[in-house]
Every structure is written in C-alpha cells, then in structure tokens.
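Q: I have 196 residues here and want to know how they pack in 3D. Can you give me a structure?
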Amino acid sequence: MTWSELALLVLVVAAVAVWLAWISASRLDRLHRKVVASRIALQAQLARRAGAAVDLASSGLLDPAGAVLVADAAFAALEDDTGPAPTAGAELALEGMGPDRERAESELSATLRSALGDDEALAELRRAPGGDELVGQLSAAWYRAQLARRFHNEAVAQARRARRTWYVRLLRLSGHAALPRMVELDDQMPEGLSGA
C-alpha cells in the first residue's frame, strides 16, 4: 500500500467519523428540543388544570372549606408557574420544572383528591347546575396533564439514553447542556373523576 492510498484511507475513515458524529449531534439536539417542547406543553396543561380547579372552587358548588383549600392550592401552583421573572433562555433549559413547582402541583392533586374523592360528593356535584361541565373540564385538563407528563418523561428518557452512549460522551457531543430531568409529581386522579 502506497502512502497516497494510506492517506486516502485515513481521509475516508476521518470523513465517515465526522459524518457519524454530526448525525449523532443532530439527533441529540433534536432530542433536547423535544424535551424543551414537551416541558412547555406540560406546563401549559398543568396551568389549564389549575385554572379548571380555580373555576370549580369559585363556582360555589364545593363546600366553603374545600373551595378555599382547592383555590389556595391552585393559586399556589399558578403563582409558582408565573413566579419571578425568568432569566434569558430559561424556557430552553433542560432541568425540568423545579422542586417547588412539582411540590405545588402535587399538593394541588392531593387537595383535589380530598375534595372530590368521595363518590357521593362527586355525584352530587355533577347533579348541581353547571357542575357536570366544571367536573368534566377538570377531568379533561387533569387527563391531558397526565399525558403531557408521560410524554415529557419519555422524551427525557430518550435524551438520557442517547447521552449515555460511549461516543457521545467521548466526543462531548452534548456540549454544555445540562442533563435533562424528569418531572416527578403526584398527578393521580380520584377514582370517580378518572371515569368522567
């Protein structure tokens, strides 16, 4: 093998390696974008669920103590969503929603379960004028939030799997991007509401 053939072989191998690295980096970038988009969708669905909870609490159909608890928990979740002004590029971060937001959403779920967990109270609420519509809106928003969280966590799992490969770590294809974080919160619906 002459030196020109050897140089050509090295050049071809280097070109293939660069091409594969570029393909992997592009895939990783798409997965990171998918994580960000799914988190934004999740935040929108959680805000919709909190809005439906506020509507139910302000309808006058819940008992006064339950309405106050539901409204407080819903406003806490919404305030955490619109809290301090985000830094530039914060909406594109991969770190997830943060423990305070997850805690507020979990507390809203627990409060709603305690207010709507009794099948008799839920049936009475549905029979009230406008109650069936409010319960249906809450149920639909809650279900969409559950789906959005599952999609987000699957996107995070895909990105983490891609980042674990040896060549991504060796070539540092993820750059300085933080490791995506799953959203862990309590979003279990009450039994009577899940069938709505």
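Q: Anything worth noting?
A: The chain is about 75% helix and 0% strand. The chain has a mean pLDDT of 88.
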